[in-house]
Amino acid sequence: MKRRTLLRSLMALGGAAGTGPAWVRAASSSDPAAGLLTQTFPDLQGQPQPLAQWKGKPMLVNFWATWCPPCVKEMPELDALHKRHSGVQFLGLAVDSSANVVKFVAKLPVSYTLLVAGAGSIDLMRRLGNAPGGLPFTVILAADGRITKQILGPVDPAGLDKWLTEVAA
To answer: What is the CATH number assigned to the segment(s) 67-168?
Structure first.
């Protein structure tokens, strides 16, 4: 029970339930992303998927949870952007349990890859620039692995579309 309370508190801190503007920061070239690309997480079938398999390709990594309303709300928007930007690897990292994610995608499927990162990924989010550990949290990596943008809170689809066009160029 304590874990669920902690996760909900972190979501409230980070996303403010979508009531305010998202925190957005363009990252400098010195931001470390190497820790992210060394991670391996299970897919929805339980098979380990190393993030290094997508090295060399621009990536959008979205940390989300089934119990996070702003996360759920932005998933169709991310799915539409995924379909528009085929040159960018989209990846949803669920700060949740595998069982919850499997049930969730049966109701709201998406076309991009979903992996289960679990509650332990909050430390990873903090290392990537999300000090409060809130959700949703999106990181965009250039093809060379540099973090080029971090968004804490819901994404702005139009702004993200423009950014992805630039990153994939």
So the answer is: 3.40.30.10
User: What are 80-119's pLDDT values in tens digits?
Assistant: 999 999 999 999 999 999 999 999 999 999 999 999 999 8
Distance (Å, rounded) from C-alpha 78 to C-alpha 76? Answer: 5
Name the DSSP letter for residue 43.
B
Q: What are phi and psi of 16, to 5 degrees?
A: 45, 35
Closest CA to 142 of 166, 114, 117: 166
What residue spans of the chain are helical by DSSP H? 2-15, 34-37, 69-84, 98-107, 121-127, 157-168
Report domain extents, the chain.
67-168
For the full predicted model, state whether its pTM sits above 0.90. no
Q: How many CB atoms lie within 10 A of CB 122?
A: 20
Distance CA(72)–CA(136), nearest Å, equals: 9
